[in-house]
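Checklist before submission:
- one chain only
- standard amino acids only
- sequence pasted in full

Submission:
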Amino acid sequence: MRQDRCDAVCIHPDKIEEVKKDILEDKALISLSDLFKVISDPTRIKILYALEKQELCVCDISVVLDMTQSAISHQLKVLRLSRLVLSRKEGKTVFYRLADEHVQKLFRQALDHIMEESL
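Returned file contents:
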């Protein structure tokens, strides 16, 4: 017997109504989907992980990840346009950090979830 489908057809109108009244609008669904697409890239995950620990410049991130500054800059642009990281300029150096506590929580909870699965 498969666990992913019912053996009998039965509709639960009260449950359906409860879910339907709070279902996300298409615009929010697309934005959420786009967010998960952005953070699904391993390099961007590494960058977010590094920035969770410390504000860093492109040079620092490229050393930590052993990648070119050009490759890091490209990924940071994607993260910045998705509002996951913020930048600030100090002289000629641009430092990056996580955009806010929501990004940190999202990252931390996802990491906790996968670490829990591996136990």
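Reviewer check: Strands lie at 56-57, 85-90, 93-98.
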